[in-house]
Amino acid sequence: MSCKISSEVELRLGRSIAVFRGRRKFSSFVLFLCLFLVTPSAPAQPQNTYYVFDGKTLEITHEDPAHANYMRWQVWLFQEGVHIPHYTASLQYSRWGLIEGTSAASVMKRLRASESFEEGYLKFFGPGTWGQYTFFNPLGPVAVTNQVMEAEPAVLEKLYHLRWLDDRVNKLITTVQPSLENNESEGPGSALKEYFDQIRDTLERVSKIYSELARVRPQLQFIKLELARTQPAIVQAENKVPEITAVLPSVKLPTSLNWMFQAQNAGRDGTIEVQISETGSGVAVQQTWKGGDGSMTGTIIATTIPYKEIGNIDLVPPTSLGEWTVRVHAARAPFPQRIDSPERKTIKATYPAVHYETTGSSVYFVFPNSADAQDTFAYFLYHKQLGQ
Questions:
Q1: By CB distance 3.0 to 4.6 Å, which of 111, 178, 289, 387 could disulfide with 250?
Q2: Sign of dihedral through CA atoms 68, 73, 75, 76?
Q3: Global pTM value
Q4: Which residues of 14-32 are buried (b: 16+ CB within 10 A; e: fewer)?
Q5: In this predicted model, what pLDDT tens digit does every residue of 259-287 receive, in sequence order?
Q6: Residue spans in the chain of domains classed CATH 2.30.29
Q7: Distance between CA atoms of 136 and 84, rounded to whole angstroms?
Q8: What are the two backbone dihedrals, phi and then psi, of residue 69, each rounded to the nearest 5 degrees?
Q9: What is the CATH number of domain 258-386?
Q10: What would the pLDDT profile of 154-172 be if each residue is shown by its tens digit?
């Protein structure tokens, strides 16, 4: 099929996509896409533009997809540098995979997440290491009008299974992507490449299954086998996350040491000075009470937090007073504590001296600004993941 370029209906997609006026007459104005070459940098459509696909032709609509009343949306994915035949119907067969959802916003969000993971992968392992099945060569969002997958129970069952796996693999890349972004590039020879290749391959496989499931007559036996292969691969990658973060922590070690000494207001008990110092295998936290009504003056609580015993870490948003809180919880064994307090006198009572050893299930730190709180959170999370 040949086509003549018409400048009034020219549409940019990547380096060279032209839209042609066909000879056949349709009830609505249909744009034929002639795709000579699809390049990795070809963008999805702007937010105020989307496509409508009826199973045969692809029509572009210059409207906000958020206002479009369609229940099925896709993003079509093409290989890097792939050549597409010069007729519209070929586009759905020339794609290597697709992203599917119930809204234009949902499929575009999935696309951005996949692109972001691919970008992090390439920065860590080097250019040319991802392969041909790129997410940076999309067409979409595409509203699909001719197929209702829910009409066939067998297809619907596999669609639900696929969506469940899709959610899991997207949560997985969200978890491990910071490890690629917050550590120095190791190049294509990295021993970790096999693990991230497994996640890449799983992400690609999910898109390929969506593409096969979107066919008019999907090969259900093939889809069943692919789903059976995909699930254990995701489970295996999920189980290895602690091993990966132990080598590539998901956060950077903070460069500022301001957070290691803070003074916080303790109300009638005066001021608590908090001093944090590294001990080699953990940190020592010393809290010293000064001033106030005298009931706590001179009290010192010294807590040792072994890195290997760090459990959950909470970064609590600011209260009405604007103070940020970081809570560090013990994992298995509670943190060792020593409490020393001299005899204290107030107007109302005299308190005896206290000297004893105990344990604590958590330690919390209060900061007047978010920067110190985030540095504290990053520090403990970094050492929790390393375990040292």
A1: 178
A2: negative
A3: 0.78
A4: beebbbbeeeeeeeeebbb
A5: 999 888 888 888 999 999 999 899 999 99
A6: 258-386
A7: 16
A8: -100, 70
A9: 2.30.29
A10: 888 899 999 999 999 999 9
